[in-house]
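Deliverable D5.2: sample structural annotation.
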Amino acid sequence: MVNRLATVTSPYLRQHKDNPVDWWPWSKEAFAEARRRDVPVLLSIGYSTCHWCHVMAHESFEDEAIAGLINENYLPIKIDREELPDIDAYYMNALQAMRGQGGWPMTIFATPEGSPFYAGTYFPPAPRGNLPAFTQVLSAVSQTWTDRRAEVTEMTQRMDRGLADMASAVSDALPAEAASELLSGEELDSAAESLLDSYDPAWGGFGKAPKFPPLMNLMQLLATFVRLGGTTSARGESADGRVGEALAPGAVDRLGADGHLEGELVLDCLIAVRSTFARIASGGMRDQVRGGIARYSVDRQWFVPHFEKMLYDNALYLRAAVQWAKVERALNPASKWLALAEREVTDTAGFLIADMSDGDRFIAALDADSLNAAGVLEEGVAYVVTPEEFAEVGEEGLLQLVDSPAAGELSGSVVAAIRIIDWLGMDDVPFDEEHPAPWTTSATAAQRDGLREMLDKRAQPARDEKTITEWNSLAITALAEAALYTGASEAVLHTGGAGTTDVAGAPGDSADTDSSEDWGSTAVHLWGAMVERFGGAGARIDVRRSFTGDTPGPGQAGLADWAQFIAAGITVRQLPESSVRVSDLMSLSASMFADFTAEGETLKVFDSMGDEFLGVRASDPVDNTVPSGRSAAAEVALLLAEIGVDGSAESGQTGNASVSTSSGGAAPADDLSTGGLLDLRDRLLGVYRALAGRAPRGCGHALWQSERALNPVRVATRDAELNRIATRHPAVTLITAETGVPAEDGSEVEVPDGTAIVCQGTQCSLPVSTAEDLIALLGA
């Protein structure tokens, strides 16, 4: 038997290289072989850190008898959903159409033409509950293929038509007028109210268990809070009535401590964000020892995680924590809430660099499973501890073990820090240099050090070393935003004193500049490394979906890969040490919009270039675990328009040769001037009018971009201290070194040294030179 998986780029496929199953990777040759043999295709789709994928592999794909049944009657194909997201999406639609729900491992039975006719997820080796044995399924499907081929043909024709219709349903269902106009403030208010209808006041988050961290929705709510005047009310600028009293100094810190909503939208946005962040940050889903969060919580309380750690979750968590910290700093720069927000920023950024970076890239994920003392793979064994082990490291600090029925199958208990919730709600417990945050005490530090030393001795979870462009870009953006927030600049002024809070959790000096400079330099380095992998500056850029080492994976880059890559470049460009050029970003954007959009009655948007075998180009606007390609592209259009590309002189942005792209087409809205980009932004976001009120949990990133698009603010400055103020202000969309606004003579309006100019569109303020004047302009 030929081992076709031994040299593939996917770590997931290589996990199956020694199976007795005669696996093929996804290819036209595999389907041609199925046609030659006249057998159906068995598609098994998963990813390397998928717990139930491991279980099914061990129970069935490593079993000689089951493998023999598969090899005799099927052409088996293994697919890494992360390398080939368009293939995964196509068959996931089929699975959901047949079963009403999806998941991984995904098990699809298809014709040699790729048409699905039976589907499921995990099948056990013997009947279990309502699940048939995998051998029963294999035998039944094979018999149907042999004896009732006409039924199979009829079913596949129906499914093919349904999947083709599904691929174009979103664009076809949108009248032109619905997609051409940005959502209004009233519509965004309604979306926030609809989202809050599913808020869990006892434990934060939305809906019931299992709970996924709703990070994009949290950023949406923070933006709604700012738009509704939450941060200005806290300064007394519109402090009238109940809202003014609740947001007044001395009162605002009490909001969210018990998690219950007040019935006022502006207050409820802040309460839901605070409660959700606090519950996640203090629970077991958040790794209290090393930092970072797991993929989701099995229980409602955020106590027991599904232990795999994904790069995209942690990147989005860092982005959301930065946005939260900006709001808390505007409300009260000496509050417990800000201390917690900055703890999440610092620990998550540190985790990304320490545990998920690899030289010039980020890895994709850390597995949920690792080897236990008996040498058997077990979920969570690298993280849980017994009461006896915990007693050895001491029980005097903040950390403690939590009990939950969801932890029944674990070999130990999960470590959490749930007393943070009590601390946040205790008005009588002071917070100052004499009374620091509980996670900074010597007892807690001893607990954390002891636990880390203990856990480091265990077998560690496997690392998925793939480089996913979309996820790397998300992480680079998050690191750059964290660096900007904390003042990553050699010239930043350390003013100290009142109004600043350090990341250690007590009022005092400004944030840890050494850490933030590391984050900024890492972001700059990793974005440059991506450019080099795609061909390098001065070469023709060929964006790819994934790499393993320096070898590209089999999948073409999709819209989400392109958009997140460009967004990362825009964000990195705001760092002082960056040399990213606007012309490069424009060239990349022109290529992206040409390849993934098309003009029609509405703007058609495609998520992928289309698989050469299936020939279907998906178009799904839903923000799921990551932003959709469409909403990510909308962020690119928004940020590029704010740069003011029409007149950008790119002052100070030298050092890179221009980047050319491989696209030969013209962008559908080939006017990528500021006005053209704003129109494109509105057409990309207008689609979400249909989803905003009915399914806001499925368009959090799009709603966040819609909030930002209503009143984007950019600050043009080269002054380090004014830059620091701007990067920490929750209303600012973009920081630039130039105004991007043409002067009367056609040149660009310059920013005088030592000043800042605040712009909204082409309307710019006069230059200001003091912190007080800049803050006043931003609060206007």
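Annotation notes: Confidence is low (pLDDT under 50) at residues 488-504, 651-658, 662-667. The chain is about 45% helix and 10% strand.
The annotation will be released with the project's public dataset once the embargo ends.
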